[in-house]
Amino acid sequence: MKKIESRENKWVKRLNGLKIKKNREKEGVFVAEGLRFISEIPADRAVEVYAVSQTFAMENDISVYEKRAEVLCFSDTLFAAACDTETPQGILAVCKKLEWDEAAVFAKHAPFFLLAEELNDPGNLGTVIRTADACGADAVFLSKGSVDLYNPKVLRSTMGSLFHVPVFQNVDLHEISAKLKANKIPLYAAHLKGDGFPYDLDLKASCAFLIGNEARGLSEQAANLCDQWVKIPMPGQAESLNASVAAGVLLYEVVRQRLER
User: Fold this and answer.
1) Would you call 226 exposed, middle or buried from its count of C-beta atoms within 10 A (0-12, 13-18, 19+)?
2) Residue 116 pLDDT > 90, yes or no?
């Protein structure tokens, strides 16, 4: 375990630099913060380095992490400064960005996917990914213009589900809709002008849902890529649902129908 006590240390500067999207993209890495999140990192995922606070090192068995990668021990003050959270838990990991096989995802039996157009809120995206993981969705596809998957707030909101469900960024919706059609996977739009409810669909077979931006909903171009528009019933007075809530309703309808097999 290597001790880090100077603000001028290259690792201090690098960790602070990785808070910026362009630096994460340049290096192809992201920072996982917190004990629970780090415990979700699968054994086959590459960890470049762990960083811990001095207090964490004194109170925990660091040898567990040393077996996997180098461990850097920061003074508590330096560690707090390097973290994105206000109350850091004392451990973080620099991980290689995740790579998923899109062809393998499409090859699964009766896959079901969630697509999102320009989902901008980090908390919403993290919740969507976590819900997709809970429902056993086979993949999440994010259009160009969506919030960065490796934004620290997104990562925290996934609660580690980022490691379990394939997420594809910067997707061209026209291209992905063409792939869905080629694979005979119907694409349904969650739309206020839908002519039916998700409960009327046969979701036991392959299927995909498309949700829109939090403020604007789906663009006309994206909505027109879909095979059918469906609406979630809202007998109350609210005009719309939060994007992550809408995604949850749709995903769990797939789960409900498939549990009835």
Assistant:
1) buried
2) yes
